[in-house]
């Protein structure tokens, strides 16, 4: 296992606290969206629409710190930060963070930790969607829904994870690279 530098540890801690705050904000958005969808009988979609937002720490950590385990650790630490900030989801976010982070980690594993690009992120989006959906299928009782509803929930989750975890993270990484390139040209 490669050693972690102090800079990488500090970056991971920063990402955890940053995304913990993002996750808290997502909790507020979730409550509002849930309330708006409830009269139409679509409240389960509130979680699915925003789900990718809750999984962003893992792909960002994996891309910025290209080491085995960084995606999983990044998501778990962000979940811990969310919990410490006072998330009304409570300590359950830690297990969710572990599952989501490991799902993203699978994307890097599939590429044998050789690719840190959209391909690895897409594989990670598949892993995150599948693992988290199986977990939440039982947690939220999705088995009580008909096949069409379950398929729709899964599809919306996948689109959300791809949007936030692949498309948005890719854009964040492009901005990060521009900043790095600007720093080099100024030096």
Automatic annotation (TrEMBL):
UniProt keyword annotations, A-Z? Membrane, Transmembrane, Transmembrane helix
- The answer to whether the entry has keyword Metal-binding is no
Q: Where is the signal peptide?
A: none
Which Pfam families has this protein been placed in? ABC_cobalt
Q: Which domain of life is it from?
A: Bacteria
Task: Give yes or no: UniProt keyword Transport.
Answer: no
Question: Per the UniProt record, which residue ranges are transmembrane?
Answer: 12-33, 45-65, 85-108, 120-138, 144-169
Tell me the protein's name. Answer: ABC transporter membrane protein
């Amino acid at each position: 296992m490669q050693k972690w530098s102090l800079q990488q540890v500090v970056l991971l801690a920063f990402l955890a606290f940053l995304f913990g705050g993002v996750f808290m904000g997502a909790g507020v958005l979730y409550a509002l969206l849930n309330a708006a969808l409830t009269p139409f009988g679509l409240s389960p979609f509130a979680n699915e629409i925003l789900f990718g937002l809750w999984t962003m720490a893992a792909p960002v950590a994996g891309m910025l710190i290209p080491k085995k385990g960084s995606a999983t650790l990044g998501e778990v630490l962000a979940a811990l930060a969310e919990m410490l900030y006072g998330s009304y989801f409570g300590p359950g976010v830690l297990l969710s963070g572990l599952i989501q982070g490991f799902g993203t980690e699978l994307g890097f594993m599939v590429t044998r930790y050789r690719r840190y690009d959209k391909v690895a992120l897409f594989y990670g989006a598949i892993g995150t969607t599948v693992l988290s959906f199986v977990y939440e299928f039982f947690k939220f009782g999705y088995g009580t829904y008909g096949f069409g509803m379950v398929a729709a929930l899964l599809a919306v989750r996948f689109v959300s994870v791809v949007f936030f975890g692949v498309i948005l993270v890719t854009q964040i990484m492009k901005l990060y690279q521009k900043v790095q390139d600007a720093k080099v040209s100024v030096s």
